[in-house]
């Protein structure tokens, strides 16, 4: 399902992604539980140039060139809390669910492309994003004749 929603038509991926051969910055968090999925799916599904970068490092001198490092793949974590009344306990109970919302920022044009969906299954979202990013990148490569 995610693969059909994370598209250029839904404005989750830039239509001209891959035309300029820039290096995709993939933001990692420093937490193994998350970063292992980011590294797994980027390296297996996306075949353009990329680097794994901690969020704080994006603004360092190394990544200042927005022509070379045009796009950033990142996430927002969202916490949703629901409360329900538990009659057997005679009180309200709260449950918090953490979900991920991914996006791509075009640093050269200052445009953000947001995924139209969120999920607590963040590995599946990363995988779908990378499959579709690779497809768009390949579509935008110059044709060899």
Annotation, overall tally of beta strands: 5
CATH fold node name:
Rossmann fold
Q: Which CATH top level class fits?
A: Alpha Beta
Radius of gyration: 18 Å
Q: Kindly give the count of domains.
A: 1
- CATH architecture grouping: 3-Layer(aba) Sandwich
- Ends distance: 36 Å
- Beta-sheet strand percentage? 25-35%
Largest sheet report = 5 strands, mixed
Helix content: 10-25%
Shape: elongated
Give the ordered list of helices and strands.
HEHEEEEH
Question: Structural class, from helix and strand content?
Answer: alpha/beta
| pLDDT averaged over residues | 90
- Number of H/I helices: 3
Please list the strands of the largest sheet in the order they lie side by side. Answer: 2-1-3-4-5
Present the secondary structure layout.
Blueprint: H1 2-5, E1 24-28, H2 32-45, E2 50-54, E3 71-86, E4 91-106, E5 111-114, H3 122-139
Parallel strand pairs: 1-2, 1-3
Antiparallel strand pairs: 3-4, 4-5
Helix pairs in contact: 2-3
């Amino acid at each position: 399902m995610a693969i059909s929603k994370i598209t250029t038509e839904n404005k989750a991926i830039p239509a001209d992604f891959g035309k300029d051969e820039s290096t995709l910055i993939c933001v990692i968090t420093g937490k193994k539980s998350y970063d292992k999925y980011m590294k797994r799916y980027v390296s297996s599904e996306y075949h353009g140039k990329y680097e794994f970068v901690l969020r704080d490092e994006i603004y360092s001198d190394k990544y200042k060139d927005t022509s070379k490092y045009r796009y950033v793949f990142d996430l927002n974590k969202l916490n949703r809390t629901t409360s329900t009344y538990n009659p057997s306990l005679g009180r309200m109970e709260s449950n918090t669910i953490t979900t991920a919302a991914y996006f791509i920022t075009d640093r050269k044009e200052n445009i953000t492309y947001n995924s139209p969906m969120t999920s607590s299954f963040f590995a599946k979202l990363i995988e779908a994003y990378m499959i579709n990013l690779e497809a768009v990148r390949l579509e935008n490569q110059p044709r060899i004749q």
